[in-house]
């Protein structure tokens, strides 16, 4: 430190901590005339960096964290009482008080700085931003040889008592998959504010937190602020800058008539966009991190601006609070990032209180590696000993999770107390009283006490409620309210599974509104690639698949108190499998409650499955009268005329009959005979015109003709348009307003009807009369939320939906329902040995559910596009359980991956299902898995099977997707896989088959149907990239379905997301969220680039990949011996006839041996991929050699 005297000479002391002593009042002086109370001159003190740091630390220790040194302007502009106070102690006419930092050049070396020194100084600067002391940063960096990541982890461990990460730890595949899913969800929420700094190691989220920045910004004093508010004529005149002040030699101080303001270019200011308000939340995952299943990440909050005024101690306090929250989330095995961001953005008081809290961090005067390191080593030693004990004693992971929860039990109880207090305050508000008044009108409210009493005294409860009773929103809420009203004792976590994503989000949003909470607080949801829960969440809605994924990592569901399984009557494969797991889990956990909810009266089946003594509670529905209009009634009311040559007519026997002959049949069809009376078991499409006339003798001749000609297997879009116009036309016996809900099989039909409606001007948005809302599970969350948008009274809402709106979603203003009677179901094709999505008739239970949607708010109308005879005589009573109509391959793989069934016999496990499959089906599925390479001869999962099990597609499609990523033909394989899973884009017409075949032959390539589809798709994509009109014209000319092509593009992107989520494709790939991408636009080549598609045009490789993926679904064409026939030019080979060809499978052939050899080599690579999920197969040396050799073999002739 140096002091500058009046003469201007500088005196440098070797001791940086030297401070010039000032005279004390009791000291004698040579000047006898100076009084005891004398003024001192305000002088300039020059401090070295370390000395200034020590003084600031001491002042903050005395006065608190908010203390900061005043700026020079506060002394220059002092007025009023402050000026008087200063004049009593200082002479202000010569000099001013300043504290500046200077370089002590006397102590600097003349040697040039080395690169290592520059790097270390840069690392210290970065570590200093987190709030760590400079001396500690330097000390730790030296101990880790300059490794910034290791230094940061060591400092976090020593400052916040965290266990040091194991440098040799291996990454858990499940944990990495969960992190990738969370990353996709965060990216879709925060968009450009989220970035991946280091792949799978460091995430960063930019947050605008003005409340935090303003809390620590420089605040002017009250006197100066009040004075500044007064108008002054002098303040308007700008003073001339003082040239002596710029040189540091002005002796007049604040009395100087020139300006002492620094020039604008030398002032330290932030950017004009208020960068001081922006902060960066960093989430770091050490090597081998088991987040989010077992441990928390390293989190920290740092200001984005390097000129931020936030003290270092405050940054550490906030980081400490964030780490505590992250540890609580880790105890519940739930993601924490969304919770941390929500807390920083919404809980201002909590963050400020944590920032101003006590600072119990290492002192800068002490060595950071002296005592604390040994303690940390000791802690790691204890952890290692615990791990050894666990292995020796054979204890389950459950006990360790219980220990982790016990550590945070006190914090959880504190959070519970806060939630209980908020609940008590909430129920006193006017808004709560209005919601309770609304809820009390639901039928479920009248059963509230009975429900709570039954759930308390039984482990399993069955609830049957008709449509509109409020069971989905109220039953979980009754349990939560009862717990909060009792003071929130103990642990409470209610998990409610829903069959679809939109139902999980919609019900969570509704319940959160009724609690006056935001989604993600007390009530949240979890769906695939999106999580919206926090440490405060006590009621979470999730899809059945998400709950099954959680069971893979937490087989005992520790911490979960209630599981509500909604819509169990749908009998999906996942829901039946979940019931099997819950039945096994109830035998191990006596504290677990299971509530089953169904909308149909099939409760006895589920009660018998859980022991027979399960209580059943029936809740009546709040449905209004619904008028049923069947197909024959609609045809009669609308006077619809079906043209004989329409695309919706069925193929009749004797199709060559003329129109006159048909008219003749109509004239004589009224003649009744005993033989003409139709049997009730015969469907309408198999009746003659005379039999149709007898069955529907109460209807007009035109209606009978329409029923005779109409093809019931086709969806008549013209008739749907007529039905919409009919319900929107005023009639005395139907309502005048209300939305229209139309049930269609899939998104292809939704798109086709949407385009059909827009062809008419009355349905276009410019007419402002109708609001069209597509509803499908593949739509984005934002698009699905349009369902609940309120419209003006003169605008009619028309919802085009799949069966997703049957039970999962409630449309509050729905009055009309138009039911096509069709839905898409997964079915296993024995001939193809593949699953297909087929359009089938709904069951009577499904039709009743759809009909009930029209009577939710007032009397409605349900229009069925099938006859009453079909409904009563030919529709199934209940839907076929999915477990009986799909392949069991995914069920077997899931069973083998779940820790709960590890070591159990597969057949005994599957035999415990509510309606078990046959032994033949299980044996066939095991044999297919063995031939596919997913299980070995002993029935154990292979590495290929483990990776395929993480993809929610058929096992053969999963292999095809994996091989496409491995052999760098990703885009081509995605196209072929999408076509195999959906449908071919080629249009097949019965009346114009020759033209369709000719158009298809134009794309024939490599003697492969799949590669032919690939070529057609690629050419359409090239035309579509030029312009949409060019793409439409190309599809029309080449006889391709534009809707199918657009849907294939969307399916390809979904498959790519699945590959990214399991780590087979670069996780840093920036896949846009659904809300920010255009449907039907293929962006796969742009996303994947040349690296993943360099073999996309190698047709021999593509054919080999198809053969390997679809094996053993491969046949060999055996031709007859070659023979010759004479001709004018000599003997020529005879072309074999079709009946001479023989087709045999290749099992046991050389091709099978080659595929098995390739599979063995790939198995080694995939096993390495399991051990190291972050492994890049494109850069893995051993894997790259094997893959290149395989490509070379299969590419040869």
Walk me through the topology.
Layout (H helix, E strand, L loop, with lengths): L1 E3 L5 E3 L27 E2 L2 E4 L1 H15 L8 H5 L3 H10 E2 L6 E4 L13 H15 L4 H10 L4 H13 L12 H18 L3 E5 L3 E7 L1 H6 L6 H8 L3 H4 L6 H5 L30 E7 L13 E6 L8 H20 L5 H10 L1 H8 L15 H23 L3 H11 L1 H18 L3 H10 L3 H4 L1 H9 L3 E6 L5 H15 L8 E5 L2 H14 L8 E5 L2 E3 L6 E5 H10 L8 E4 L7 H14 L6 E6 L4 H7 L6 E4 L6 E4 L1 H8 L20 H10 L20 H7 L5 H9 L7 H11 L11 E5 L3 H12 L11 E6 L5 H4 L11 E6 L2 H4 L6 E6 L2 E8 L4 E8 L2 H9 L7 E5 L3 H6 L15 H9 L8 H5 L8 H14 L10 H7 L5 H12 L3 H12 L11 H9 L7 H18 L1 H10 L4 H20 L22 H5 L10 H12 L4 E4 L5 E2 L6 E2 L8 E4 L4 H22 L9 H15 L2
Parallel strand pairs: 3-5, 4-6, 11-17, 11-18, 12-15, 12-16, 13-15, 16-17, 19-26, 20-22, 20-23, 21-22, 23-26
Antiparallel strand pairs: 1-2, 1-4, 7-8, 8-9, 9-10, 13-14, 24-25, 27-30, 28-29
Helix pairs in contact: 4-5, 5-6, 12-14, 21-22, 39-40, 39-48, 40-41, 40-47, 41-43, 41-45, 43-44, 48-49
């Amino acid at each position: 430190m140096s002091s500058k005297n009046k003469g201007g000479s500088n005196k440098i002391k070797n001791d940086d901590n030297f401070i010039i002593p000032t005279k004390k009042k009791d000291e004698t002086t040579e000047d006898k005339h100076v009084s005891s109370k004398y003024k001192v001159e305000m002088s300039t003190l020059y401090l070295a960096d370390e000395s200034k740091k020590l003084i600031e630390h001491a002042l903050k220790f005395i006065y608190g964290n908010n203390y900061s040194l005043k700026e020079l302007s506060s002394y220059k502009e002092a007025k009023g009482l402050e000026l008087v106070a200063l004049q009593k102690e200082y002479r202000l006419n010569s000099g001013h008080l300043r504290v500046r930092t200077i370089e002590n050049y006397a102590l600097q070396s003349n040697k040039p700085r080395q690169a290592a020194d520059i790097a270390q100084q840069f690392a210290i600067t970065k570590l200093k931003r987190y709030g760590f002391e400079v001396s500690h940063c330097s000390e730790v960096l030296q101990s880790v040889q300059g490794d910034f990541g290791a230094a940061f982890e060591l400092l976090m461990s020593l400052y916040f008592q965290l266990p040091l990460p194991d440098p040799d730890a291996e990454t858990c595949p499940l944990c990495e998959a969960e992190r990738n899913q969370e990353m996709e969800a965060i990216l879709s929420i925060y968009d450009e504010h989220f970035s991946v700094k280091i792949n799978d190691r460091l995430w960063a989220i930019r947050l605008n937190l003005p409340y935090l920045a303003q809390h620590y910004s420089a605040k002017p004093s009250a006197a100066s602020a009040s004075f500044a508010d007064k108008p002054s004529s002098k303040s308007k005149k700008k003073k001339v800058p003082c040239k002596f002040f710029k040189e540091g030699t002005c002796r007049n101080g604040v009395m100087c008539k020139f300006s002492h303001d620094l020039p604008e270019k030398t002032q330290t200011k932030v950017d004009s966009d208020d960068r001081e308000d922006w902060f960066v939340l960093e989430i770091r995952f050490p090597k081998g991190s088991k987040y989010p299943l077992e441990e928390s990440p390293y989190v920290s909050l740092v200001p984005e601006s390097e000129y931020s005024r936030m003290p270092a101690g405050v940054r550490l306090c906030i980081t400490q609070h964030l780490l505590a929250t992250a540890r609580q989330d880790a105890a519940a095995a739930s993601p924490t990032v969304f919770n941390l961001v929500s807390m920083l953005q919404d809980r201002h008081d909590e963050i400020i209180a944590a920032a101003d809290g006590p600072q119990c961090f290492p002192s800068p005067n002490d060595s950071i590696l002296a005592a604390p390191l040994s303690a940390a080593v000791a802690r790691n030693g204890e952890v290692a000993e615990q791990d050894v004990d666990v292995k020796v004693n054979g204890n389950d992971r459950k006990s360790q999770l219980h220990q982790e929860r016990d550590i945070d039990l006190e914090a959880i109880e504190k959070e519970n107390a806060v939630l209980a207090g908020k609940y008590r305050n909430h129920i006193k508000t006017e808004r709560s009283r209005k919601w309770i008044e609304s809820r009390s009108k639901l039928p479920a409210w009248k059963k509230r006490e009975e429900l709570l009493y039954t759930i308390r005294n039984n482990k399993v409860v069955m609830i049957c409620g008709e449509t509109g009773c409020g069971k989905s929103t109220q039953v979980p809420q009754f349990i939560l309210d009862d717990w909060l009203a009792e003071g929130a004792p103990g642990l409470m976590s209610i998990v409610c599974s829903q069959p679809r994503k939109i139902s999980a989000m919609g019900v969570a949003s509704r319940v959160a509104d009724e609690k006056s909470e935001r989604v993600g607080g007390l009530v949240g949801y979890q769906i695939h690639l999106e999580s919206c829960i926090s440490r405060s969440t006590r009621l979470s809605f999730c899809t059945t698949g998400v709950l099954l994924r959680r069971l893979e990592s937490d087989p005992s569901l520790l911490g979960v108190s209630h599981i509500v399984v909604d819509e169990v009557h749908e009998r999906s494969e996942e829901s039946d499998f979940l019931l099997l797991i819950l039945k096994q889990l109830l035998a191990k956990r006596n504290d677990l409650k299971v509530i089953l909810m169904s909308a149909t009266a099939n409760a006895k089946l589920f009660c018998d499955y859980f022991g027979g003594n399960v209580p059943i509670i029936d809740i009546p529905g709040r449905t209004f009268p619904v008028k049923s209009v069947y197909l024959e009634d609609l045809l009669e009311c609308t006077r619809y005329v079906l043209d004989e040559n329409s695309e919706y007519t069925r193929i009749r026997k004797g199709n060559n009959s003329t129109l006159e002959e048909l008219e003749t049949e109509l004239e004589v069809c009224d003649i009744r005979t005993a033989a003409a009376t139709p049997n009730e078991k015969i469907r309408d499409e198999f009746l003659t015109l005379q039999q149709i006339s007898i069955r529907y003798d109460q209807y007009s001749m035109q209606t009978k003709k329409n029923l005779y000609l109409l093809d019931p297997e086709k969806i008549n879009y013209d008739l749907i348009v007529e039905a919409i116009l009919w319900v929107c036309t005023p009639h005395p016996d139907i309502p005048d307003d209300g939305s229209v809900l139309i049930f269609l099989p899939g998104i292809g039909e939704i798109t086709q009807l949407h385009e059909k409606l827009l062809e008419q001007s009355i349905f276009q948005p410019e007419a402002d009369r109708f609001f069209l809302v597509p509803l499908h599970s593949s739509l984005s969350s934002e698009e699905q939320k349009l369902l609940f948008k309120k419209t003006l009274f003169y605008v009619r809402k028309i919802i085009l939906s799949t069966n997703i709106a049957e039970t999962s979603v409630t449309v509050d203003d729905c009055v009309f329902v138009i039911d096509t009677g069709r839905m898409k179901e997964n079915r296993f094709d024995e001939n193809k040995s593949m699953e297909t999505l087929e359009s089938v008739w709904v069951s009577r239970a499904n039709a009743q559910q759809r009909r009930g949607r029209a009577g939710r708010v007032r009397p409605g109308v349900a229009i069925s596009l099938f006859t009453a005879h079909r409904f009563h005589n030919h529709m199934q009573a209940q839907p076929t359980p999915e477990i009986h109509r799909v392949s069991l391959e995914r069920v077997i793989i899931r069973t083998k991956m779940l820790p709960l069934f590890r070591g159990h016999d597969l057949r005994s496990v599957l035999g415990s299902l509510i309606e078990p499959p046959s032994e033949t089906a299980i044996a066939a599925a095991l044999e297919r898995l063995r031939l596919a390479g997913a299980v070995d001869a002993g029935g154990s999962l292979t590495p290929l099977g483990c990776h395929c099990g993480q993809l929610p597609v058929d096992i053969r499609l999963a292999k095809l997707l994996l091989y496409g990523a491995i052999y760098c033909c990703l885009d081509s394989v995605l196209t072929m896989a999408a076509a195999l899973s959906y449908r071919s884009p080629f249009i097949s017409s019965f009346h114009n088959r020759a033209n369709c075949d000719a158009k298809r032959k134009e794309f024939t390539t490599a003697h492969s149907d799949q590669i032919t589809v690939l070529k057609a798709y690629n050419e359409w994509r090239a035309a579509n990239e030029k312009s949409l009109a060019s793409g439409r014209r190309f599809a029309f000319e080449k006889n391709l379905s534009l809707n199918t092509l657009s849907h294939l593009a969307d399916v390809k992107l979904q498959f790519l997301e699945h590959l990214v989520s399991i780590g087979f494709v670069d996780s840093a790939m920036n896949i846009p969220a659904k809300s920010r991408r255009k449907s039907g636009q293929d962006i796969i080549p742009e996303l994947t680039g040349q690296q993943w598609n360099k073999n996309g045009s190698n047709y021999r490789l593509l054919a080999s990949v198809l053969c390997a993926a679809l094996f053993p679904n491969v046949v060999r064409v055996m031709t007859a011996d070659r023979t010759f026939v004479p001709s004018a030019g000599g003997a020529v080979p005879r072309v074999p006839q079709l009946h001479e060809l023989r087709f045999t499978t290749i099992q046991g052939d050389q091709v099978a041996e080659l595929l098995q050899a390739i599979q063995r080599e790939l198995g080694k690579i995939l096993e390495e991929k399991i051990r190291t999920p972050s492994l890049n197969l494109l850069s893995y040396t051993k894997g790259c050699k094997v893959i290149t050799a395989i490509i070379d073999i299969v590419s040869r002739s």
